[in-house]
Amino acid sequence: MESIIKTEGLQKVFRTDEIETTALQGVNLEIKRGEFVAIMGPSGCGKSTLLNILGLLDNPNSGSYQFLDTEVAQFNEKQRTHLRKNNVGFVFQSFNLIDELSVFENVELPLIYQGYKVKERKEKVEQILETLQIAHRRNHFPQQLSGGQQQRVAVGRAVVGDPSIIFADEPTGNLDSKNGDDVMNLLNELNEKGTTIVMVTHSQRDAQFANRVIRLFDGRIVTENIVKTNLQQVLS
Ligand code: ADP
Ligand code: MG
After folding, report:
1. Which residue minimizes the CA distance to atom 15 of ligand 1?
2. CB 128 within 8 A of CB 156
3. Backbone angles phi, psi at 198, to 5 degrees
4. What residues have their beta carbon closer than 5 A to ion ligand 2?
5. 70-71 β-sheet, strand order
6. What are phi and psi for residue 58, nearest 5 degrees?
7. What is the Cα–Cα distance from 106 to 37, expressed in whole angstroms?
8. Could you tell me the CA-to-CA distances from 198 to 124, 132, 229 in Å, in that order?
9. Which of 160, 163, 137 is nearest to 148 (CA)?
10. What is the DSSP letter of 137?
11. Index of the ligand 1 atom closest to the CA of residue 50
12. CA atoms of 196 and 200, how far apart (whole Å)
């Protein structure tokens, strides 16, 4: 199976006035098309930093990153945005919804960037809102929603454009177990249809959906466990 992500020696250092934090110290990782990968590890170990770089939201300081066979480690913001537009869905840990836009408009946004016409946009958005059981809130604004509802909207926005890969940073972190299961079932369904999923999670329950769990500690991958025996099927 084709490799969709391949990193070698990824390093990320954050510099603020007085302190320098090495968030990633040499991450080597390969993810094949169709995989469902969970990234776990203690708070502060670099999970979000890694996901942001993999999701083309940020650059490493050094190392190589091949995304869909393109070397992107040195890409500038504009190049990353362009590549993200048609390939990447991202569920942010903090939702990142736009307060001035309704539920419908927040989910519709990626489709506008992708150049879909109005009618097609409406169909796609309504379908996702139904699936996520939030259609009755289509005209509400983010601040009128509960945390769980905002999380659904964030997931809807990430998946609506049918990206080839979805990155999700603790997608069930703000949800009770029933709502969390709905989100995980949606991600699982998309994965079964061929979408590659890379998810950061604290939850063993969520990690069970993954084919592979990667453990990070102090900016390094410490173990990679194959969770499901059907990984061979995925890879063959
Ligand atoms: P995790 O998601 O595993 O909790 P993060 O990737 O958010 O961890 O953070 C890894 C380390 O990098 C932490 O020490 C954090 O404080 C630091 N860090 C993350 N983002 C920034 C930033 N924008 N500026 C400075 N330090 C940061
Ligand atoms: Mg994090």
Report:
1. 44
2. yes
3. -125, 115
4. 48
5. 20-32, 3-15, 62-67, 70-71
6. -150, 165
7. 27
8. 23, 20, 18
9. 137
10. G
11. 6
12. 14
